[in-house]
Specification:
Layout (H helix, E strand, L loop, with lengths): L14 H12 L21 H7 L3 E6 L7 H10 L2 E4 L5 H4 L9 H12 L3 E8 L6 H5 L4 H18 L4 E8 L12 H6 L2 H13 L4 E6 L7 H15 L6 E4 L2 E3 L8 H10 L3 E12 L4 H19 L4 E6 L9 H4 L3 E2 L12 H10 L7
Parallel strand pairs: 1-2, 1-9, 2-3, 3-4, 4-5, 5-6, 6-8, 7-8, 8-9
Antiparallel strand pairs: 8-10
The structure holds ligand G3I.
């Protein structure tokens, strides 16, 4: 896999954050730097989500079902974030393990957790080339059969979560790096029209849900993000219900920061769709050290600032919040430490940098 090497443009960072922090200090609102639940002490600073809400945004985390038995983990998950994305439990292999037989047990568990903590849920994902059930990938389908299977899957899942999921990644990772369509099962049998169909079917099933296309390596302007730009422009022109573009945000220090992220977000906003950073993590070659953690913190701040600078960038989700449950070490040998909290749930410099970028203030009592 996957992240392309990019030049790392430097820039002077965090003026708005510095300004807000200074303003807070002048107003007598100083927040003790380590006063946070992640440090095992009573929370005093406003949560990342509360701070994001000050800007009309959300701040969320992915989670996965096995993690929900880890009480120190769930305490922070329930308190710090305003939205939750199930990392695996709404994918096709989980929700329709046999043809026409749906299982919402695990997805419901995540939704129940979120509702108990007054959090909203991002649905992930209705169609993807990965984590498809065996019956689907091993079958031989005519176009009519596959269309019916896809429609039934999309509509059954979206109807089940109607009113409980505010946004769906309808189609995930449907483009190649060079901006051509990924030749997944659906493309090969149905051609590119499956994307508009899936969006229309999802919209019929829940007209209020925001419908996204979502991918990685699209944070910068290049062939892959250009392809989404053109596709979304065309879908809008055709009256297809597409409401957002999700930029996953799986970044790596060794490949450089996507310097034109803000400009990229803005061009999608100009197409009249929302954007969201949907799966952010910033990995590094291990071992981590002070310099790498400082650079990572700077990148988290830059991602946050880019989103805040674009009105239709509606929120940021980290792909789980702690290194304890990151997917990175299992997929990229020798890399990790990608999230704002470490394996012991201790807040890292990245957490404080995000907090500063959002304009740190005390919790309202
Ligand atoms: O469920 C099985 C379990 O029965 C088995 O014992 C265990 C043994 O390895 O594997 C379990 O499945 C794992 C699954 O996560 C659930 O935990 C898979 O091996 C593992 O490959 C899978 O990884 C997920 C990955 O998607 C699959 O591509 C990650 O948790 C999940 O975070 C990751 O998420 C994706 C997004 O959906 C799309 N964008 C990229 C992102 C990171 O890859």
């Amino acid at each position: 896999m996957r992240t392309l090497a990019l030049p790392a443009p430097r820039r002077s960072r965090g003026r708005s954050a510095v300004f807000l922090a200074a303003a807070a200090l002048l107003a007598g609102l100083a927040v003790a730097p380590a006063a946070h639940a992640g440090d095992g002490r009573k929370a005093e600073a406003a949560t990342l989500h509360d701070l994001a809400e000050d800007h009309g945004r959300y701040f969320g985390s992915a989670t996965d079902n096995p993690e929900l038995t880890d009480t120190p983990y769930t305490e922070l998950l329930g308190e710090e974030f305003g939205t939750i994305t199930p990392g695996n439990s709404m994918k096709w292999d989980a929700t329709e393990p046999q043809r026409g037989v749906f299982d919402f047990t695990k997805g419901d568990e995540v939704v129940d957790f979120a509702r108990a903590h007054r959090q909203r849920v991002r649905g992930h994902t209705l169609l993807w080339h990965s984590q498809l059930p065996g019956w689907l990938t091993s079958g031989t389908w005519s176009a009519d059969e596959l269309r019916a299977i896809l429609k039934n899957h999309v509509q059954t899942v979206v109807k089940h979560y109607k009113g409980k999921v505010f946004a769906w990644d309808v189609a995930n990772e449907i483009m190649n790096e060079d901006g051509t369509y990924r030749e997944n099962l659906f493309y090969k049998t149905l051609g590119p029209g499956y994307i508009a169909d899936a969006l229309r079917w999802a919209h019929q099933a829940d007209p209020k849900a925001k419908l996204y296309l979502n991918d990685y390596n699209v944070e910068w302007i290049g062939p892959k993000s250009d392809a989404y730009y053109e596709l979304i422009k065309q879908l809008k022109a055709d009256g297809v219900p597409v409401h957002g573009f999700g930029l996953q945000g799986h970044l790596a220090l060794q490949y450089g920061f996507p310097g034109n992220l803000q400009e990229n977000l803005q061009r999608f906003a100009d197409l009249r769709v929302d954007t969201a950073l949907t799966e952010v993590d910033i990995r590094m070659v291990l071992p981590s050290d002070e310099a790498k953690l400082a650079e990572q913190a700077d990148w988290y701040a830059r991602v946050t600032e880019a989103c805040l600078a674009v009105k239709r960038c509606v929120g940021i989700t980290v792909w789980d919040y702690t290194d304890r449950y990151s997917w990175i070490p299992a997929f990229f040998e020798g890399e990790g430490a990608a999230l704002p909290w470490d394996e012991n749930l201790k807040a890292k410099p990245a957490y404080f940098a995000i907090r500063d970028a959002l304009g740190v203030r005390p919790k309202k009592t």
